[in-house]
Amino acid sequence: MVQSSDNKLNIAQNPEWLAHRYQPDGDKIHFVHATRKVHQSVTFISDEYLHDNLERRIFDRSEVVLPSASKNTAHFILHSGFCCSTLLARAFDIENTSMGLKEPVILQDATGYYFQTPDKKYARGVIHDVLGLLARPFSPPEATIIKPSCVVNGLAEQFMHILPESRAVIIHAPLPVFLGSIARKQITGRLWAREQFAVLHKMKLIDLGFDDEQYFRQTDLQIAAAGWLIQQGIFQKLIRTFGSDRIKSINSETLLEKPDSAISAMAQLYQLNLNDEQIGQIVGGPAFNSHSKHGTEFNRQGRREEQSIGESPHADEIGKVTFWAEKVAEAAEIEMILKAPLI
Asked: How many domains does the chain have?
């Protein structure tokens, strides 16, 4: 279908038209009409969750990128998986203050393109335009807070350079907690860990000292730990590069133990004017009290019970792999505990 120039302009200006996919063949942007209610109703803004009946459009990138779009600032929630990052993106869906975008797939497209193409300058232009489209605020002057998929972390340094006013919170689960999450999800979790590792390993950003044959001989939880270590290495470099004024770190257990302090500190980092009452509403609201993936009632005690029941059969393996990973981290000079703490 041929779209009028007015339609293209309206879509480019309207944040309800989510920049959803990047198509390198033809340099095109795919848009899907996703209102705030649509964002709130789905776990992630991916095709797995977005309804098929949502209106969609495809345009040449040059036709829908406005000069003003790059002036909008987005902030980030960076993470290494299974660490309450979706909870945080939901928590910062605060009308007239901020809007959380949960794993926009277009960033995965842009990341794949960047690492595959030899023309990095052109790819950086694509990333610049994609970020500009994602940063469009639903209700100016709302802040846009993007929670990318963890496989996008390899481009986080580019994001921070392209948007020099942006800030980022890095959240991760302590390694034993992360391994427990993988183990209790059984084959689904172990497959997820291998897939994430495969993507990160191809990027060749962090060297843990193993060749491909050595990785092939490692267990599922060793591969999961290796992926976690690669993420820690990426995060460590980000903190060193941009400093604690722009990047802060927290682990999932600290967040859940001190949610009021964590949300208050995040609001300050993102330069959001949240008062104590608003922070209390966030902590007492659905983000902290319902399951981010399933929407069912959930709390910290329930989470601890789920962890204990699911992880106890794997406790010996988790302990041994954690010990192994600590030695790998020491040799690779990777910090198990990140600097620039949020609280």
From this structure: 1
- Say how far apart CA 286 and CA 31 lie, in whole Å: 29
In a domain, 205, yes or no: yes
> What pLDDT, in 10s, does the model give residues 234-243?
999 999 999 9
Instruction: Return the CATH number at 147.
Output: 3.40.50.300
105, 47 Cβ separation under 8 angstroms: yes
Q: pTM of the entire structure?
A: 0.94
Q: Is 124 helix (H, G, I), strand (E, B) or coil?
A: helix
Q: b/e string for 99-120 if b means 16 or more Cβ within 10 A? A: bbbbbbbbbbbbbbbbbeeeee
Stretches in the chain below the pLDDT threshold 70: 1-6, 67-70, 292-299
**Domain of 318?**
69-332
Burial classification of residue 189, based on how many CB atoms lie within 10 Å of its CB (0-12 exposed, 13-18 middle, 19 or more buried):
buried
**Residue 64: strand, helix, or coil:** helix
